[in-house]
Amino acid sequence: MLHVKKITGGPLAVNCYLIFDQETGKAAAVDPGFWSDELEHALCQIGMDSVEAILLTHGHHDHISGVPELRRKTGAKIYIHERDHRFPLDSSLSLSRTIMGGSGEPFHADVLLSDGDTVSVGSLLVSVLHTPGHTGGSCCFQVEKGLFTGDTLMRGTRGRTDFPTGNEGEMERSLCRLRDLDGDFFVYPGHGADSTLSYERKYNPFLRGASDDFAD
Q1: 82 exposed, middle or buried (CB, 10 Å; 0-12, 13-18, 19+)?
Q2: Is residue 123 a contact partner of residue 24, using CB atoms and an 8 Å limit?
Q3: Residue 150, Ramachandran bin (φ over 0: left; ψ between -120 and 50: alpha; else beta)
Q4: Which of 26, 131, 193, 209 has its CB 3.0 to 4.6 Å from that of 152, i.e. a possible disulfide?
Q5: What Rg value do the Cα atoms of the chain yield, rounded?
Q6: Residue 216: its pLDDT value, please?
Q7: How many Å apart are CA 47 and CA 85, to the nearest integer?
Q8: pLDDT 10s digits, 186-212
Q9: What pLDDT sits at residue 104?
Q10: Which residues pair with 146 in a beta bridge?
Q11: What is the pTM of this model?
């Protein structure tokens, strides 16, 4: 059974999520973009050695800056989409140089993801949805009725497309894909408040206005 804990931190107030499988005690971290006392305390509560995966929705610095410390503490494998694999190694792609004035600590991912891949976290199955637009390798992670959307879909809005590898046409198609998923999901975005997919379908102008035949 899925349990989700959100910790918000860093200069751009990114949401890091700890996914915990209550059946096996195994866990994963989604987008640890910072390292803080609150995050460390939450990890200690579930057990550092229980964290076996670090899942990155994309490679921007505010979503990946805490990864090196988290890997040192836990030994967890790092997962990122193959189209964003260079971001943790290139400060011009991750925007750490542009926005934060520094390069950050580079790292290599252990596993490069593709659309349709699955990652096991205990008895939980994490499904990878490639949703490019904010970056070329942006992903959403579906776990049971939870949808971790990074900077693709946020409450009432969506991510920017004017950063390196961003693309307006891909974003439009990605929003269509999320809109057209069967059923409802809890939406856990990279920034801001949680939502539901049914709420976004009804009130998010970018989701309501998404066109299936959008061209580049």
Answers
A1: middle
A2: yes
A3: left
A4: 131
A5: 16
A6: 41
A7: 28
A8: 999 999 999 999 999 999 999 976 665
A9: 81
A10: 143, 186
A11: 0.95
CB atoms within 10 A of CB 68: 17
Regions of the chain short of the pLDDT cut 70:
99-103, 209-216
Report residue 148 as tokens.
């971790």
| Strand 139-143 to 124-130 pairing | antiparallel
- Report the C-alpha gap between 140 and 55 in whole angstroms: 10
Q: What is the pLDDT of residue 211?
A: 62
Whole-angstrom Cα distance, residue 80 to residue 137?
8
Contact in structure between 81 and 130 (CB atoms under 8 Å) = yes
Q: 18, 129 in Cβ contact below 8 A? A: no
Residues 187 and 151: beta-carbon distance below 8 Å:
no
Q: Report the 3 state secondary structure along the chain.
A: CEEEEEEEECCCCEEEEEEEECCCCCEEEECCCCCCHHHHHHHHHHCHHHEEEEECCCCCHHHHCCHHHHHHHHCCEEEEEHHHCCHHHCHHHHCHHHHHCCCCCCCCCCEEECCCCEEEECCEEEEEEECCCCCCCCEEEEECCEEEEECCEECCEECCCCCCCCCHHHHHHHHHHHHCCCCCCEEEECECCCEEHHHHHHHCHHHHCCCCCCCC
Whole-number pLDDT of residue 215: 40
- Residue type at 210 in one-letter notation: A
At residue 48's C-alpha, the angle toward residues 46 and 53, to 5°, is: 95
